[in-house]
Design a protein that fits this description.
This protein is of the alpha/beta class. The protein folds into 2 domains: 2-245, Rossmann fold, CATH 3.40.50; 247-299, no CATH class. Helices cover 42% and strands 20% of the residues. It has 15 helices and 10 strands. The strands form 2 sheets. A 6-stranded mixed beta sheet has the order 6-7-8-3-9-10, sandwiched between helices. The longest helix has 14 residues, at 107-120. The protein is globular. The model has no long low-confidence stretch (mean pLDDT 91). The protein binds adenosine-5'-diphosphate and magnesium ion. Residues 2-235 form the ABC transporter domain. It comes from Pedobacter westerhofensis. InterPro entries: AAA+_ATPase (IPR003593), ABC_transporter-like_ATP-bd (IPR003439), ABC_transporter-like_CS (IPR017871), P-loop_NTPase (IPR027417). This is Osmoprotectant transport system ATP-binding protein. One of its GO terms (molecular function) is ATP binding.
């Protein structure tokens, strides 16, 4: 769906992005991960032509993105900016109507779509007449996402979408977004410096350093098959949690529920353990889960 080939971007004498290449398949969630200044935002902005590369090419569905007007291109690509990016002097309703207005949507159509997204994103319709400054961080982030989804673009670019939120809000919004039907089917490139976030949200992760790709692969590839010392060291501090998040339950206990990580299973066990009377007699325990996980790692 998206193919970036040998992107280079210099600012003056410093090279922000140095020959980056990657593919994103339809419906996939690719994470650009790395410390501040490694070139993630610059890479993302090249995909919707907010930044033009010095060299290299990006193809969207096989077509060079330079063959389209940037404005036309951007209508098919939702963009969630770092720190929500809402216009402060526009109300929430005005903010989310920007792209529909460009596309000359009837106001009733815009209103209906907004209502639908507000419901899915757990936003109170009463905030529509408020200005962004009157909203909580979590609400601002949800409105920023609603705005990017209004015209249902097939591709979504998200730059540190949870960066401005406190830890607990971030973790719960992340969980919600992961299962949101509007996002599940989209092709997404998301930027983050948060390793846990990358592992929770990404189908594949592109770990960058100083404008270059250190490794691109599934969370399991990076964890269990690091391409070099940089990758291994980058993940070392959080390794155990990352392993628990990236290994699926059915990998360590064949025949169990698909698509739930060992970590998610642990979290739900902790809830069950808080109400032990509700647990079936032969229920999985944290102990049996950890034993199976250790066995899996030694395989
Ligand atoms: N418009 C710009 N002008 C000059 N330097 C820039 C500009 N945008 C980014 N840079 C520089 O390019 C490098 C990569 O920046 P950026 O892509 O924003 O990194 P990240 O998003 O990973 O934190 C940094 O050194 C940054 O200072
Ligand atoms: Mg950035």
């Amino acid at each position: 769906m998206i193919k970036a080939a040998h992107l280079v971007k210099k600012f003056g004498s410093s090279t922000a992005v140095n020959s980056i290449s990657f593919d994103v398949k339809e419906g996939e969630n690719l994470i650009l991960l790395g410390t501040s200044g490694c070139g993630k935002t610059t890479t993302l902005r090249m995909v919707n032509r907010l930044t033009e590369p010095d060299s290299g090419t990006i193809f969207l569905n096989g077509t060079d993105i330079r063959s389209q007007q940037p404005e036309t291109l951007r209508r098919g690509i939702g963009y969630v900016l770092q720190n929500h990016g809402l216009f402060p002097h526009y109300t929430v309703a005005e903010n989310i109507a920007i792209v529909p207005r460009l596309l000359k949507w009837e106001s009733s159509k815009t209103g209906k779509r907004a209502d639908e997204l507000f419901e899915k994103l757990n936003l109170d319709p009463a905030i529509k007449d408020k200005y962004p400054a009157a909203l909580s961080g979590g609400q601002q982030q949800r409105v920023g996402l609603a705005r990017s989804l209004m015209v249902n673009p097939p591709v979504l670019l998200m730059d540190e979408p949870f960066g401005a939120l406190d830890n607990l809000t971030r973790i719960s919004i992340r969980k919600e977004f992961r299962v949101l039907d509007e996002l599940v089917k989209k092709t997404i490139i998301m930027v983050t410096h948060d390793v846990q976030e990358a592992f929770e949200m990404g189908d594949r992760i592109c770990l960058m350093d100083k404008g270059e790709i250190m490794q691109i692969g599934t969370p399991e590839d990076l964890l269990f098959r690091p391409a070099n010392n940089f990758v291994a060291n980058f993940l070392d501090e959080q390794r155990l949690q990352l392993e628990l998040k990236s290994v699926l339950l059915e990998e360590i206990l064949p025949g169990s529920a698909k698509n739930i990580s060992v970590w998610d299973q642990m979290e739900s066990l902790l809830q069950v353990n808080a109400y032990p009377d509700d647990a079936p007699g032969d229920a999985l325990t944290i102990e049996s889960l950890m034993a199976a996980f250790s066995k899996y790692k030694k395989r």
